[in-house]
Amino acid sequence: MQRRNQAAYIVASAATVVAATMAAIAFGLGAVSAETLPTRWKRVRGHLPRSNQQAIRFRAERIQRVRHLGLDAQSLHEIIQRYRSYGRDSLISSGFLLETTPAKGTARIAAQHRTPAGNALLQEAKDVLFALLFGDESTNTRFNRTQRELLTLTVPASKAAALEFMKASTELHAAGTWQDPDSVSNDERADNLVIEVEYGEAHDESIGDAIIATLRLINNLEVNEQVLYARMIDIEQTTLID
Predict the structure, then answer these.
(1) Which of 60, 156, 185, 216 could be 105's S-S partner, Cβ–Cβ 3.0 to 4.6 Å?
(2) What's the pTM value of the predicted model, to 2 decimals?
């Protein structure tokens, strides 16, 4: 598990880990609220949920794109290598992001800061993440999922719309504190969402590796956090049994 722990922290800080842990404890004590999906995103910091008709249309379009991807174990390794090669500087030099892109840890990256190629890459990354978490034969996604794992992801509530496409998850509202060593994005009890998604993992944990590589790319193209905290843990038992 050492390799998984290193990969899943993405640039994790002790402060973020504590915030996520305290959120889980607070949820157990009833101090914070949770909402189980099919997703209805709350009205947080100006973000309004899409209408049901829009959500249905966007979901159908995403399913069609995921089917065209046809992800399997072989294509997964290519995606991991390709996505790992993208960093902030390379995304700018390769023509996916503009030079005017907000500094990391500040505002969410809007479409006008990405080139058409950058917007297409972001859409692809979100489709890939959807397939990794929820794909099955109905979406032409073929993985040998042999175990269950839980993905926990912490994002600022103001940037939650970047992950609005999640199909089935639990979200917890939590306050987090982050002290940036470079004083770019200090947070004091910031409004965060802790998102949990249960998914099927392969025996070699390649799906988890791909999830981390994909989240890193989505962060560099849109979420724009200095620290995007994600982790996976094994699930010994689950009620998601057919």
Answers:
(1) 185
(2) 0.72
How confident is the prediction along the chain (242 residues), in pLDDT tens digits per residue?
Answer: 444 443 333 333 333 333 444 433 333 333 333 333 333 333 333 344 456 788 788 889 999 999 999 999 999 999 999 999 999 999 999 999 999 999 998 999 999 999 999 999 999 999 999 999 999 999 999 999 999 999 998 888 888 888 876 655 555 555 545 455 555 554 545 688 888 899 999 999 999 999 999 999 999 999 999 888 888 999 876 665 55
Burial 172-204 (b: 16+ CB within 10 A, else e): bbbebebeeeeeebebeebebbbbebbbbbbee
Q: What are the beta bridge partners of residue 231?
A: 152
Residue showing tokens 């998850």: 169
Residues 185 and 188: their CA atoms lie apart, in Å, by 10
Supply 6's token pair. 């290193």
Angle of helix 52-69 versus helix 116-134 axis, rounded to 10: 90
- Strand-pairing partners, residue 171, are 35, 195
